[in-house]
Amino acid sequence: MSDMLVNGINVKVEGIADITPQEIQRYIDYVESKTDEKLGRLTISAKADGQISLDYQLQPQKFERIRRITGYLVGTIDRWNDAKQAEERDRVKHGLN
Question: How many domains is the chain partitioned into structurally?
Fold first, then answer.
């Protein structure tokens, strides 16, 4: 078992002694192409039947604030008209404390 960092991704290899860095990169590219997201962690393991098992965790995604204002779910209010923006600006804001 070996742990390494490949292109900023934590990679653990279990049960495969002769894996090359190029093979590891191909597994990274494969998972990222299937998920369309960036990997945070990858474990490459040998299975009993000769196959390879890939266990991975994706990097956390940025969260965009969503607001519910008079029935609308929005991420940004820049396309609202002046009256609707004034309504949002005049609302009482409640904290989470």
Answer: 2
Q: What is the mean predicted confidence (pLDDT) over 82-91? A: 84
Q: Which domain holds residue 71?
A: 63-97
Q: Is the pLDDT of residue 58 over 80?
A: yes
Q: Are residues 28 and 13 in the same domain?
A: yes
What's the number of CA atoms in the CB half-sphere (13 Å) around residue 81?
A: 1
Distance (Å, rounded) from C-alpha 64 to C-alpha 6?
Answer: 29
Written as one string, the DSSP assignment of 37-96 is: S-EEEEEEEE-TTS-EEEEEEEPPPPPPP-EEETTEEES--TTS-HHHHHHHHHSPP---
Tell me what pLDDT residue 53 has. 93
Instruction: Report whether pLDDT(9) > 80.
Output: yes
52 and 81 assigned to the same domain: no
Residues 45 and 8 in one domain: yes
